[in-house]
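Sequence design from tokenized structure. All designs in this work follow the same two-part layout: the structure record, then the generated sequence. An example of the structure record is given first.
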């Protein structure tokens, strides 16, 4: 409807109504329409569709499709009723309360959980969105109508963006995929909002993070693209790191005296890209991190909540953000003046609903409800919903409660065979 912003509350009652009436295809079609408006459904709407699958005895493949769609929006189950509905729809006997260790291995089925990454199509779409937004913002700033030519500044910024993409492509072709992209300004201005703080970034802090990233151990990830974790981290002497820093921070009259040698070293080792004046450096570090692939981490405390990030496709962007945004902190100053760096890397697997690669009947689901059933109001420590635009503190992955759907311990299988 022209001029009216569609919201979840517009679609939720209709989807649930179709589901109660057993009109599965209509409910699915309405869900797809909601997603076309970048509306992510909640657990309530998804579970109503799953319940519809159970009520009409839908084929298991259809139930799998519905559940996979639900996994895109809902990271964890919040109620036991949701679990029971899924159990009914998938015709699964029993449940297995399992633990998942820090590497992602399930104690129930001995499988490793996956890092749910963007596929090639999703990555290309996200990169194209960033690219088009950069160009689109230039057009909005300088073209009041179609007959007005581009201003010189807009042409220059557009060309500078093209130069950056060409440079990035060439750097990765020569040196390999980047492992860490550092948001230089975010690191450089860390806790510098006090009275009397210098107006320049702290180059020591940026360099400390750089040195830490160069030697940091990268956890191996197992993704949908491969059945085995990547082993590339064992074959490199040092990680490949790129700092993105706006040119205004590198002006001769603004840099502190000690920074010149640091920046000279960065440049000689191709570890910095300077974003030109009147460009938005956010797009530069985001594009570089996304383009680098599944094993690149973005080092920044920026939650990426500004309005221009909201214009990105939320599914792909938030999924990428959950898997790659790496928070940082500094320890106390040491005697020699340096500070230890603490990086909060994402775990090597996604803390969200996912299906086993080798067996479509096995699902792993992190849960928020109390598995014992003794207190339905007591929530187990579990993962945050990743469809929020703010990433809250990640939980201790060893304390997350998990269900292994379709998983039966080997001992139970043998016992069943002996009883038949």
């Amino acid at each position: 409807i022209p001029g009216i912003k569609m919201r979840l509350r517009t679609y939720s009652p209709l989807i649930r109504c179709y589901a109660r009436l057993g009109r599965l295809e209509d409910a699915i079609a309405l869900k797809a329409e909601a997603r076309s408006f970048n509306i992510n459904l909640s657990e309530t709407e998804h579970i109503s569709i799953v319940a519809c699958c159970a009520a009409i005895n839908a084929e298991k493949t259809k139930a799998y499709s519905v559940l996979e769609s639900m996994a895109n929006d809902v990271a964890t189950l919040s109620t036991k009723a949701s679990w029971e509905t899924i159990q009914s729809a998938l015709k699964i006997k029993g449940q297995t309360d399992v633990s998942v260790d820090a590497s992602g291995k399930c104690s129930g089925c001995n499988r490793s959980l996956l890092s749910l990454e963007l596929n090639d199509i999703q990555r290309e779409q996200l990169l194209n969105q960033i690219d088009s937004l950069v160009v689109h913002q230039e057009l909005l700033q300088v073209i009041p109508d179609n007959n007005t030519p581009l201003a010189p500044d807009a042409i220059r910024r557009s060309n500078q963006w093209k130069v950056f993409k060409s440079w990035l492509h060439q750097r990765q072709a020569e040196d390999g995929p980047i492992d860490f992209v550092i948001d230089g300004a975010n690191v450089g201005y860390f806790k510098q909002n006090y009275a009397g703080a210098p107006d320049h970034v702290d180059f020591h802090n940026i360099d400390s993070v750089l040195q830490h990233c160069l030697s940091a151990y990268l956890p191996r990830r197992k993704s949908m693209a491969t059945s085995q974790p990547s082993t590339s981290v064992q074959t490199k002497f040092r990680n490949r790191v790129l700092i993105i820093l706006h040119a205004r921070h590198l002006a001769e009259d603004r840099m502190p005296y000690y920074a010149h040698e640091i920046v000279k070293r960065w440049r000689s080792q191709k570890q910095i890209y300077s974003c030109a004046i009147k460009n938005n450096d956010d797009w530069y570090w985001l594009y570089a991190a996304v383009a680098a692939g599944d094993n690149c981490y973005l080092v920044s405390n920026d939650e990426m909540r500004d309005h221009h990030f909201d214009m990105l496709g939320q599914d792909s962007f938030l999924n990428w953000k959950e898997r790659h945004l790496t928070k940082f902190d500094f320890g106390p100053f040491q005697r020699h003046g340096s500070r230890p760096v603490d990086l909060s890397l994402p775990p090597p697997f996604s803390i969200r609903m996912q299906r086993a690669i080798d067996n479509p009947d096995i699902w792993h689901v992190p849960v928020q409800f109390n598995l014992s059933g003794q207190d339905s109001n007591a929530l187990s420590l579990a993962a945050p919903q990743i469809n929020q635009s703010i990433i809250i503190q990640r939980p201790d992955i060893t304390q997350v409660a998990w269900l292994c759907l379709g998983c039966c311990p080997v001992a139970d299988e043998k016992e069943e065979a002996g009883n038949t």
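Residues 130 and 178 are 19 Å apart (CA to CA). We note this feature because it recurs in several other targets discussed in the main text.
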